[in-house]
Amino acid sequence: MLVGSADIDELKKNAGTIPQFTADDIVFEDTTCFQLVAEMDNTAREALLPSALHPTIPASMVLQVFNVRTSVWGAFVLALIRVSCRSGVRARGFTLGAMVTTEKAQKGLEHVLGLSTRLAVIDMEEAYAETRISVLFSGAQVLEIQALDPEPLSTSDLQFTGTLNLANTPNGLRLVQVECIPQLMRVERLQSTFNSFQGEYWGSPLLRPTQVVTSTISRGDFLLPAIRFVCKPDELAFTGTESVK
Amino acid sequence: MKFGIFFELSTPRPFSREVEWQVYHNALEQCRLADDLGFDHVWAVEHHFLEEYSHSSAPEVFLSAVAAQTHRIRIGHGAVVCVPEMNHPVRVAERAAALDIISNGRLEVGTARSSTWTELGGFRVNPDDTKKTWDEFVRVLPKMWTQDEFSWQGKGFSMPSRNVLPKPYQDPHPPLWVTVTTPGTELDAADRGLGCLGVSAAGYEEQERRTREYHRRVQLCEPAGGFINDQVHTMNFLYCHEDFRIAREIGLPMVNAFNVANTHLYWTREAFPTRAYQTLGNAGAHMKPKKPPVDDPSVAKGLPEGVGIGDPEHLIATIKKWESVGVTGINFLLNAMEMIPNQQVMDSMKMFAREVMPKFQSPGHVSEAVFTPNRISPAGQ
Fold first, then answer.
1. For the domain that residue A135 is a member of, what is the CATH number?
2. How far, in whole angstroms, is CA A56 from its chain's centroid?
3. What is the pLDDT of residues B154-196, one digit of tens each?
4. Under an 8 A CB cutoff, do A156 and B278 touch?
5. What is the pLDDT of residue B364?
6. By CA distance, what is A238's nearest residue in B?
């Protein structure tokens, strides 16, 4: 059984902090979500995950870009890179790097969801037949994607798996499980290409996408329920999972 | 009730040539024993790139060895992945026919389309197309096996007129099956007159629903082949020991290890949103929360619903319950990642054959090849 081998002390350096778990759900309303799945260099398969998690075969990563028009933190754009994994038998994504456009959202995402982000300029340009996404961090182009030829899918065809954010919590350093329940109005699948991707800005230079599997753009509301479970980062989910009261 | 054994050829890490050799040869030994003990079927899956979970990428080769080393057990080539990037339909027809000849007409052919991105992506298959190509395969295979001149202009492949050779030994051809992972596939099987080969562990309630609908629908079908195969088999695990606690101690970790390895695959639905894959393959069944039935003998004893682990008395009760929901056969996984020493696996098979199987056989039952569409005498008899 494959398990992650990343140095947790290294991962901890980028961990967010949740001072106190809250009971309130978060809703990203009137939101566009671009999601891209890519296979990545297999040498990174175990190296990017803490030992609580199992990699998928082949190693793969997911980029999610949320263009949120209404939320308790106002309008913002969030881009995050997750490594696809399993927590116990559950399909999950471990967040390796994230960027956001506003300080208010940055603070909220960290304190409520344990998601550590960096401020960046994130553009999502949507045209009828094309979507372009670019992320500028400290003047450097750290990601640019062109997505073409949208093809309609049913809203039930798209699956969102839960996200795990490494964060300092009242329980200690934990993987914080963030669930995402979309209420979608529209889903399209697109053909995407990376024009630019700098893995070192997203958590590790080992993040090297080798081929895009698929990408989608969806529109609707995204409900992020209050945190219910956290997991010790160095213990398998079967025994390391804790519920949050 | 028919009983079979079912091989994924799962292989523990660290991988080595010796470990893979051992997995294959232990499985062959189990097949020879199953033949002697009166099991009805041996099935071997086709999977590619599925580290640990299944190293059974060339089942036709493994099953040729089984055919050569056994005498009466039926040989389940299943399931063949019916996408042209992995298997050209002519090659499927040719290999199956040759295996049917070598086995003296003991072949069963399962069909499937793969549910992991690990496999489909490895062969650069477009997941949107697999249901279409599977449908094309199940309609052309019987024609290739029975027509002297076959030509085809289709979506998945085309070919000019040729005589696909050899023809199978069974007349008109081996029984065809469909592996059923996703709910609804049993209806595809019924509409085409194909046997229903369950490969995910559905609970009793779900299985009963699927089986009832299958049997209703198969009566109205337009068979894709030369006859209707209306059998419904499920997959299960087997560990039989006279002491229930020992059976559970040894058998349950095997079930858990198999299920964990299963969920580590990269499911197509997760990677590639498409209408063609509506569930997370086998993982969906394990992950779906459900309320176990109160009268299930397994759950009452701390085991997953309906699992084939326990003492003979418990297994008889469990199998009777499967029988009551319309299942006509159960194919058992005997081991996972070689967690159980081979001698213990064989002891479990022997006890099952001695104590459990007779309870499901009619008086005067003689172990023989169980189903031949149009029975013909094996050569030389």
1. 2.40.400.10
2. 16
3. 999 999 999 999 999 999 999 999 998 877 889 999 999 999 9
4. yes
5. 58
6. B260
Give B295's DSSP letter: T
Torsions phi, psi of A137, nearest 5? -125, 120
Lookup: tokens for B215: 């049997």
Rounded Cα distance, A77 and A96, in Å? 17
Which listed CATH number (3.40.50.20, 2.60.40.10, 3.40.50.2300, 3.20.20.30) goes with B2-360?
A: 3.20.20.30
Is A2 part of any domain?
no
Q: What is the pLDDT of residues A8-35, one digit of tens each?
A: 999 999 999 999 999 999 999 999 999 9
Give the chain B residue nearest A152 (alpha carbons).
Answer: B274
- B195's enclosing H/E stretch is strand B195-198
Size of interface A-B (CB pairs under 8 A): 76
Q: What count of residues does chain A have? A: 245
The residue in chain A having the minimum alpha-carbon distance to the alpha carbon of residue B124 is A213
Amino acid at B296: D
Residue B263 to residue A91, Cβ atoms within 8 A: yes
CB atoms within 10 A of CB B327: 25
For the stretch B293-320, pLDDT in tens is: 556 667 667 788 899 999 999 999 999 9
Distance of CA A104 to CAs A25, A107, A111, A181, Å?
17, 5, 11, 23
Peptide bond into A58 cis (omega under 30): yes
Whether B273 sits inside 8 A of A89 (CB atoms) is no
Q: Does residue A1 form part of some domain?
A: no
ipTM field: 0.94
Residue B347 backbone phi and psi in degrees, to 5? -65, -40
- Restricting to A residues 107-146, those with a Cβ less than 8 Å away from any Cβ of B are none
Question: Is the model's pLDDT at B292 over the cut of 70?
Answer: no
Across the interface, whether the CB atoms of B271 and A60 are under 8 A apart is answered yes
Which residues of chain A does B117 touch, with a Cβ-Cβ cutoff of 8 Å?
Answer: 213
Shortest Cα–Cα distance, B274 to chain A (Å) = 6
What 3-state DSSP class applies to A190? strand
